[in-house]
Write a structure and sequence with these properties.
A two-stranded antiparallel sheet has the order 1-2. 53% of the residues lie in helices and 2% in strands. The radius of gyration is 17 Å and the shape is globular. Helix 1 crosses helix 2, helix 3 packs parallel to helix 5 and helix 8 packs parallel to helix 10. The chain has ten helices and two strands, in the order H-E-E-H-H-H-H-H-H-H-H-H. It is an all-alpha fold.
Length: 209
């Protein structure tokens, strides 16, 4: 699943230009048709990017993502109208996110990688690298399969991290990892509908575990 936030951010970028002309970020108001056209280009860009397929490529890609993170934990940016009030994305977040998505696709296309301990450990390292902020969402989602369940305890503490809480919850569900009902219950009151739905799904499934 491709998370829409970075794609919407792509649509809202100040210098974003597509066939048919650019749109502005602050001074102009793009039409729904503009946004739909730009979003289609953004999806194509993500889906057509090369998928990493070898262990060495994935390890290198993870290191690249970590190097994108600032040395200090960056403050939350101001809210964006284009993101329905969610904070703006940093450029490093936007740069890191497609790297994790390419790794998620690599796991789908090469299932043997799901049993590679070195690869899973490195992806988990990026997924929990807080300074990457929302750029690590895709790395969290890349671990969303049963063979990665041993990393449930690694990602579960971030159920209280607003940068990735929904992605962590979704990944725990896909890992089929019980034991985090109390944390999931707190997300039943999230201001995001999709997170509330995931929380209910988790609690309904594991409340007796």
């Amino acid at each position: 699943m491709i998370h829409p936030a970075p794609l919407r951010h792509f649509c809202a970028t100040r210098f974003c230009a597509v066939k048919g002309g650019p749109i502005t970020h602050m001074s102009g108001k793009p039409t729904n048709q503009d946004l739909a056209r730009i979003l289609s280009h953004a999806i194509f860009a993500v889906m057509s990017s090369p998928t990493v397929v070898l262990e060495e490529e994935i390890l290198t890609a993870c290191e690249e993502a970590i190097r994108l993170a600032p040395a200090e934990f960056p403050p939350t940016l101001p809210p964006s109208k284009e993101l329905s009030g969610a904070p703006e994305w940093y450029s490093f977040e936007h740069a890191a996110w497609p790297i994790g998505e390419s790794i998620r696709r690599a796991f789908v296309e090469n299932p043997r990688l799901k049993k590679n301990d070195a690869v899973l450990a490195k992806v988990a390292e990026v997924a929990t690298y807080r300074n990457l902020r929302r750029g690590r969402q895709s790395f969290v989602m890349a671990l969303g399969f049963v063979a990665a369940r041993r990393y449930a305890d690694t990602v579960a503490p971030f159920l209280s991290d607003p940068d990735v809480e929904g992605q962590v919850l979704d990944t725990l569900i896909k890992m089929k990892a019980p034991g985090y009902t109390r944390e999931a219950i707190s997300l039943l009151h999230s201001d995001k509908v999709w997170i509330r739905r995931l929380a209910k799904k988790y609690v309904d499934r594991y409340s007796k575990s």
